Amino acid sequence: MNNTAQALTVPDRRTGDTAPRRPPRLQAYAPQSFFAVSAVFHYLGPAFAVLLFAHLDVLGVAWLRIATAAAVFAVWRRPWRLLARGDRRGLMLLAQLGAVLAAMNVLFYLAVARLPLATVGAIEFLGVVLLATAGAKTPRNAAALALTVCGVAALADLRLAGQPLGFACAFGNCALFVLYVVLGHRVANNDAGTATGAMSGIDQLGAAMLVAAVAVTPVGLGGALAAFAHPVLLLAGVGVGLCSSVIPYVTDQLAMARLPRASFALLLALLPMLGTIIGAIVLRQPPTGQDLLGIALVVAGVALHQVPAHERLRRDATV
Questions:
Q1: Which of 80, 111, 147, 279 is 20 to 30 A from 166 via CA?
Q2: How far apart are CA 212 and CA 67, in angstroms?
Q3: Residue 1 has pLDDT above 50, yes or no
Q4: Residue 161, SS3 per DSSP
Q5: C-alpha span between 51 and 40 (Å, rounded)
Q6: Would you list the domain boundaries of the chain?
Q7: What is the pLDDT of residue 159?
Q8: Does the pLDDT of residue 191 top 70, yes or no?
């Protein structure tokens, strides 16, 4: 075997078998760059989904989103292999993440069908503030968190009147989004989910999406049936799934694997800011002066935040 071939193989830590080593191409990119991609698509997909609500039931659009993602992961990662060989602990984690993904997406769509996208985005961030607060261990990061919270508060400008069901769904989505961050971060840093070897975070995400598709089918499939008679609507639903549940969740995993949970939680402050921007462009929901002030504060807070050096070195070494 020549030197090049030797450099591309590495013995498995558990079995001793020699397996191909993936070239560290992704290490050339900062983890924040993966999050930036995720943040853009996090609301771009739902903005397009809102446009579909005029033609399909809200729960039907949610089903198309999750089913599309499950189909893509099934072809790309073949995640059923993980479900077949997983140990009890790993399977429980995947079941929990799948259930959270299903419920979170349903509640999110029920909320954005009734409230402005920016408002739902601001409420979504409220829960992860607690995660960011727990990790603000330096004065600089505490100041970054304070700026970010003030910015989100300016963006939110919540008026809890007129749409009680919409706000109930938005706050339910907020709670589930916290669970998504916690479980997703655990998946991204989990290498002991099976008895036979390590699973990548993206493989586990694919398995969890299969669980989510099964969970949402009883409530969502009926509302999606009309799309199968209209190819344009079906293609639009597939596009929503790619933009909402494939691209952002994959890039979330790439970012979570290299960022502490608190740092990732603070970066999530970009979501309500981008929700405001995308709502203005796609849904014609123009920002106010207060919205622009909130965006400036969020950008300042995220720019000020710094990942601790020891965390950055430790995580880069494991990717």
A1: 147
A2: 8
A3: no
A4: coil
A5: 17
A6: 42-306
A7: 55
A8: no
